């Protein structure tokens, strides 16, 4: 039998514990045992579990307004292309400002 | 139909009863199933949610997942007050009690070893956050007059960012070192994404510390003191958790 010692009062979890903290633990830590119902949490189609935080299918997440990955260059190739194009345009503009003569010379 | 068996945790028999009003996932109170001196904490769950097919789609439902995760954690929390539980991963489900007993028997040696290792210890979570510096540091004129000005402004803003992250990293390293001196073990987890956690600032450190109950007060005071050492960064403490991060075999 165990007789636990006194513990300090809980910190940072008064009733509304950060969901990310809870999910991080219950989905990603703890002991893995194959039960009779075989579900590999990692098989569930999840963008977010990859981020090891929260479970939602892409459609579900979009429905909920979680779509930030679409603009994150690390996660979306579309965003990466957009980012490059934006930077490219910005640099062109700056070059034109730095050296206003050049563009016109070429055109002439 | 008595439903399926959802297992929250495995522990040693404990004397103190769980709170009477405690309910687990699907609203069923957790029951104790004892086998060879080990206790599986179990509740009955309906097939309509926890059989393989429905469970798969339920897990994609964020509201359901949230409620289930909180209920799971609620039972683990209640156990942590009275004993040292080995928390199982969410949604560990068996057909019946005998399936649970078979599992307990098959893993008996592992469970005992891990229970011995974790006995009397809890987990504390410590996170460090740094707020983004303002985008245009010290540049009152929005539009640079020349290309050179632009580059200078850009360089100094990049430098301010780099400087901040570097200081954050140094602070995180020091903090981790200090806390590791009191903790028996630690794990560094990937930083949480601000969009999902809903916490402002960038999560620079996301660590878990295994601390004996008897030293927990000391650990909490130590964290509190480091909070006062900095105004640039935020230190966040959560716990005491069951030793989730330390229940698996050592990496």
UniProtKB/TrEMBL annotation, chain A:
Keywords: Gas vesicle. InterPro entries: Gas-vesicle_GvpA-like, GvpA, GvpA-like_CS. Belongs to the gas vesicle GvpA family. It is found in: Gas vesicle. This is Gas vesicle protein. The keyword Transmembrane does not apply. Its main location: other.
TrEMBL record, chain B:
The keyword S-adenosyl-L-methionine does not apply. Keywords: Gas vesicle. The keyword DNA repair does not apply. Pfam families: GvpL_GvpF. It comes from the Bacteria. Belongs to the gas vesicle GvpF/GvpL family. This is GvpL/GvpF family gas vesicle protein. It comes from Streptomyces justiciae.
């Amino acid at each position: 039998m165990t007789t636990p010692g006194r513990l300090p009062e809980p910190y940072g979890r008064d009733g509304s514990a950060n969901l990310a903290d809870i999910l991080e633990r219950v989905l990603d830590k703890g002991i893995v045992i194959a039960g009779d119902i075989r579900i590999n949490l990692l098989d569930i189609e999840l963008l977010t579990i990859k981020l090891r935080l929260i479970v939602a299918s892409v459609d579900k997440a979009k429905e909920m307004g979680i779509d930030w990955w679409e603009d994150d260059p690390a996660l979306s190739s579309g965003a990466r292309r957009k980012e490059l194009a934006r930077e490219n345009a910005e640099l062109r503009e700056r070059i034109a400002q730095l050296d206003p003569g050049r563009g016109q010379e070429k055109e002439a | 139909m008595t439903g399926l068996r959802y297992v929250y945790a495995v522990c040693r028999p404990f004397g103190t009863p769980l709170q009477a009003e405690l309910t687990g996932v699907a609203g069923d109170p957790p029951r104790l199933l004892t086998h060879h001196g080990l206790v599986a904490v179990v509740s009955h769950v309906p097939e309509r949610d926890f059989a393989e097919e429905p469970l798969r789609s339920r897990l994609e439902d964020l509201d359901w997942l949230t409620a289930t995760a909180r209920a799971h954690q609620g039972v683990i929390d209640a156990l942590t007050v009275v004993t040292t539980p080995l928390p199982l991963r969410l949604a560990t489900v068996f057909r019946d009690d005998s399936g649970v007993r078979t599992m307990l028997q098959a893993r008996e040696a592992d469970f005992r070893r891990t229970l011995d290792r974790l006995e009397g210890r809890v987990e504390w979570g410590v996170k460090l956050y740094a707020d983004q510096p303002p985008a245009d540091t010290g540049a009152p004129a929005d539009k640079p007059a020349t290309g050179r000005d632009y580059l200078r402004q850009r360089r100094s803003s990049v430098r301010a960012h780099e400087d901040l992250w570097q200081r954050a990293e140094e602070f995180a390293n020091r903090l981790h070192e200090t806390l590791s001196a009191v903790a028996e073990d630690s794990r560094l987890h990937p930083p949480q994404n601000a969009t999902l956690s809903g916490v402002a600032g960038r999560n620079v450190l996301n660590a878990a510390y295994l601390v004996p109950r008897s030293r927990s007060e000391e650990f909490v005071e130590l964290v509190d003191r480091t909070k006062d050492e900095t105004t640039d960064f935020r230190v966040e403490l959560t716990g005491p958790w069951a030793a989730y991060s330390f229940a698996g075999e050592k990496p």
